[in-house]
Amino acid sequence: MSTTYEPPKVWEMKKENGGAFASINRPTAGAREEKALPRGEHPFQLYSLATPNGVKVTIMFEELLAAGIKEAEYDAHLIDISKGDQFGSGFVEVNPNSKIPALVDASGDKDIRIFESGAILVHLAEKFNLFLPKEPAARAEVMSWLFWQVGSGPYLGGGFGHFFAYAPEKMEYPIDRFTMETKRQLDVLDKQLANNKYIAGSEYTIADMAIFPWYGALVKGNLYNDSAEFLAVHEYKHLNRWADELIQRKAVLKGRLVNRSFGDEDQQLKERHSDADFDGIDLTYR
Ligand SMILES: N[C@@H](CCC(=O)N[C@@H](CS)C(=O)NCC(=O)O)C(=O)O
Description:
Layout: E1 44-48, H1 52-66, E2 74-78, H2 89-94, E3 102-105, E4 112-115, H3 117-128, H4 136-166, H5 172-194, H6 206-219, H7 227-230, H8 237-246, H9 250-255
Parallel strand pairs: 1-2
Antiparallel strand pairs: 1-3, 3-4
Helix pairs in contact: 1-3, 1-6, 4-5, 4-6, 5-8, 6-8
């Protein structure tokens, strides 16, 4: 593959572009096969995978349960995106965008579907009145950082992570462009955390839960191979301080392992249906 490219008048899909995950990508939406979703007995049915976007939600569930909210019990079903589970008809009914995480709130008379990790966090925070303050200024700060993450994350994941770790060859232009932006984002967070204990101020909120699985994992060296050294993440000392504090929280340690089907065997909780499922799982952050 050459790094110079003359686009044709009209783009057409080639069979394979060689990148990781290329085999599941198509330029069309919608179900590719009839496949019903499994259903457990709890009020919440989560369909997910322990990628950073999935982990935002499982941290939230574990935090709600740790706070004593029994009504937040959930079944977490594994969606293997490398096998195309996200294109099954049942999943597409819950998320027409075919991406994890997707949630069914079955706690009321009628099921409510929620997709987009940010929307799921807000739904749960509002429902249980936790991790999202009501006071207008404090709420606006949390929402601003939450939407900051949802808008900024794709430059880190789809931009930097893709070209640094997944593209079929290393290309200077995109790696340079997205590294610049990723480091700028890390600096935004570092400056915010220089003056605040948590992302949105003195309280731990859904903004922390959204940002930790991406930027916390990045500075802890848990995202995109050897990117920590490349990005000199040790330079962001306030961000490191915050990430180190968050990994002291049991709910964070638990949430990051739910729906995990990769990595060390003793840290994989593929499906979660009760707290007892964590028996035998090593929660150590590594
Ligand atoms: N903006 C979405 C992004 C979700 C997303 O990109 N999910 C990825 C995994 S991290 C996915 O399901 N990819 C499958 C695919 O693209 O087919 C959110 O925050 O929920």
